[in-house]
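Q: Is it fine to ask for two folds in a single conversation?
A: Yes, each is treated on its own. Send the first.
Q: Here.
A: Result:
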Amino acid sequence: MVGLMLFVEGLEIGLFPIGEMMADALARKGSLFWLLTFAFALGFSTTIAEPALIAIAGEAANISASSLLIKNSPDTITSFALGLRITVAFAVGLAIVLGVLRILKGWPVYILIIGGYMVVIVLTYFAPSAIIGLAFDSGGVTTSTITVPLVTALGVGLSKIIKGRNPLIDGFGLIALASLIPIIFVLIYGMVMYS
């Protein structure tokens, strides 16, 4: 607990201000391409390094192999776990890009959330039952120790600069999207891998 507390404190002291400064610098320069590239890279890199996701992906691969949903070999298990991590990380990167665009354009967050969950409901109907729990868990796992402080810093930094934006709503709107989009991608990943 002490180690986790010090880790989170270090993120708040060191990385939270960096996220805000980067968002501020990129938004002031007016380069949409670099802002979106930074947003994707931030979402992808923080998620791929997320300790909880690494643990869940490894465990999901082992369970899938023992249930004979995938081939029970070390290479297949490793490949499944890595594929799951990359899928979730890509989804979070895409979610952050979508969230940044939402902040810039002023789109209401509830439309994206409701639309996203409608897609989740439809995909849940078609997805194999073995992947559904994992898909919903992956949404929660992605918003953990590393990802939340950095993504929130980006959202807060952007929403402070752009007039008419609320740092509380827009900063945490990014987290909501980062929880939702991985569910969609993992459901699709399960349809592909378990077919």
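Q: Second one now.
A: Result:
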Amino acid sequence: MSTPYVLILFYSRHGSVSEMAKYIARGVNSVNNIEAKVRQVPPVSEISEATADPIPTDGAPYATLDELTDCAGLALGSPSYFGAMAAPLKHFIDQTSTIWMTGGLIDKPACAFTSASSMHGGHEQCLQSMMTPLLHHGMIWAGLPYKHKALINTVTGGTPYGASHLATATSENTLSKDEISLCEAQGKRIAELAIKLAN
């Protein structure tokens, strides 16, 4: 029997969301009897006929719908574009109607993570934009409780809706100590919930 996994599924344009995914995976992998599976989605083209190579030139492999269906839990990540998830991630989610029709994600835990370039650049609204389709799938949303002191102390990213990163122009991919702590906490929480809900 294969080990259950949390699918860490993201789109990252400049690398900060990809960096967050690594720490969320570390949190998942700190829990026994479950593992992290890190996957990305390809960019979408402004030219409708253009397609991406099936294997990305760098970073995590591209996700498949089967990997989404078979996950025990989901962590969804995107940069915040005008307070919403990026188009490539939305495009991938828009292809999941067959999973919705069969109830493949019902009662599985989900969370989200994001990065924005200003303190009020839509961190929380972007997380909520990712939450909405997952609620339609019947998933159970898991934010970050305030028992994590980094959530109270952070002066960079971090919200009770999910982990976030404040990406400045000079250090786009450099996560603060609090942001790293919250990413790891979020990964650990989603893994623990996935095991509890599966049982």
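Q: Anything structural to flag on that second result?
A: Two points. The first helix runs from residue 16 to 29. The mean pLDDT is 92.
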